[in-house]
Each structure stands twice: as C-alpha cells, then as structure tokens.
Amino acid sequence: MPSLNAGALRALPPQLLGQGSGALNFVRQLGGAIGTNLLAVMSERRGQLYAHAFAASQDTANPATVDLLRQLLSYLLAEGGVAEGGVAPGFGAESIGLAEGQRLGYALDYLGRMLAAQAAMMGYRDGFLLVAIAFVVAIPPAWLMRLRPRPAG
Predict the structure, then answer these.
(1) How confident is the model at residue 80, as a pLDDT?
(2) Is 133 exposed, middle or buried (0-12, 13-18, 19+ CB in 10 A)?
(3) Are the CB atoms for 54 and 119 separated by under 8 Å?
C-alpha cells in the first residue's frame, strides 16, 4: 500500500500533498467498505443459488442421496446413534424414544445442513475468485502509475 500511495501522490505538486493524502485515504476506506459489502452480498447470493441447485438434485432418483440417507439411518440405528428400539443409548429410563419418522427427519436434517455448508463454501469460493480477478485487473494500472515521471516544479 505505501508504494501505491506514493505513486498516486507523486503526480501532485508539494502544496497539494496534504489534500491529496486525505482524499486518497478517504477513497481507499470508502472503497474498502463498499467492496467488503459487495463481496458479502455476492457470496451470500451465490450461496443461495448453489443451495437451490443442490436441493433440486436431492430426490429418490439420485442414487447418491439414497445411499447417504441409508447410511445415516443405519448410523442412527447403530451403537453411536439410536438403539434398535428407538431409544438413545446411555440416557437411562428418561431417554427420548425416536420413531422411524423421527430418524428419517434427523437424517434429512443432516442432509440439509450438509448441503447448506457446501453451498456456502461454493459461494465463498466465487467471492474469492471475484477478488482475485479484481486484483489481476488492478495490477496494470498500478504498474502504469510507477512509470509516469514526476512533474517538475
């Protein structure tokens, strides 16, 4: 940042350096605030787009979804999940029993959370890709600033 500031202020005459520095800092902070806001909005919207796309592909015709739900239901019936009788192991007499529909509900909830996490990650990936493109686009103007000679005077 200091070299970009110096490059931007180099074109100003000495009597305007104070005003130029203040304007540069204001524009840099304003741009950072707007850029951060746009990045957050874009990441959130792209995450929602991915969530809708992922949710649309989850049905009984998708063998990966069916296999995952079978694995989750078998886990809920296993030792670490819910015992065969539908009672959570290790909770004694006051434990809460889970019916078949409840087990399926837990499995579907887990699938939904997993899809939401993947969709958010894809939205963040798109946001960081946008930031990388913006930096690549900003490199040539920064190099051109360095090549300009300082005005005499």
Answers:
(1) 47
(2) exposed
(3) yes
Q: Are 111 and 65 in contact (CB under 8 A)?
A: yes
Measuring CA to CA, which residue among 93, 71, 68 is closest to residue 81?
A: 71
More confident residue, 91 or 83: 83
Q: What is the pTM of this model?
A: 0.65
- Whole-number Å distance between alpha carbons of 53 and 91: 39
Amino acid at 132: A
87 forms beta bridges with 97
Closest listed residue to residue 49, CA positions, set 132, 116, 108:
116
For the chain, percent helix, then strand, then coil, each to nearest 5? 75, 0, 20
pLDDT more than 90, % of the chain: 36
Sign of the Cα torsion 50, 56, 60, 62 reads negative
Cα atoms found within 13 Å of the Cα of residue 49, Cβ hemisphere only: 10
DSSP letter assigned to residue 149: P
